[in-house]
Design goal:
Strand order of the largest sheet: 1-2
Radius of gyration: 20 Å
Shape: elongated
Largest sheet: 2 strands, antiparallel
Number of helices: 6
Strand content: under 5%
Structural class: mainly alpha
Length: 164
């Protein structure tokens, strides 16, 4: 097979692979946006843009795991390479946990802890992004729906309880 044909075949294979990752990032951002919109409407620190980016970044990192393994499997040290997709998920969760910790703080006047729900929303968007990248779109959509319902109804319930 001529070099030019090989090059074009590789280009189209890469294009297809990257398009699938890009579609997954877009879907993850869409789902993260629903939760982010709810947080935005509740006037919380991590809103629409933040949660869309968290979900999209998670999907992209998981999507890049296959090309990463493929790229380095052809190197001279391929016998030392151990592919463990859970390590990528662990790294994502570690990074997101750091971001979540920055949203949690103690209020000085009544010693109340604030930002826990926002941190949980960031974490769930991260996991939704991971699910989308693993082609678990129905699961991701369902969790997005449940998260928004929980955030909305729990907030209304908390307001009702605090009035009594």
């Amino acid at each position: 097979m001529p070099f030019r044909s090989l090059l074009m075949e590789n280009f189209y294979a890469q294009w297809n692979s990257q398009s699938v990752i890009l579609l997954n990032v877009l879907v993850a951002m869409f789902f993260g946006g629903f939760i982010g919109l709810e947080r935005e409407l509740a006037k919380k620190p991590a809103g629409l843009r933040t949660l869309m980016l968290v979900a999209g970044a998670s999907a992209m990192l998981v999507g890049l795991s296959d090309p990463l393994i493929e790229r380095f499997a052809n190197e001279a040290y391929d016998e030392n390479l151990r592919a463990d997709p859970l390590r990528i998920v662990e790294a994502i969760i570690t990074g997101i946990s750091f971001l979540c910790a920055g949203t949690i703080f103690r209020s000085g006047k009544d010693d109340a802890i604030e930002g826990l729900t926002t941190a949980a929303a960031i974490l769930i968007c991260c996991v939704i992004g991971i699910a989308v990248a693993l082609y678990q779109w129905v699961l991701a959509a369902g969790v997005t729906f449940f998260a928004v319902i929980i955030l909305r109804t729990a907030a209304a319930l908390e307001r009702l309880i605090s009035k009594r």
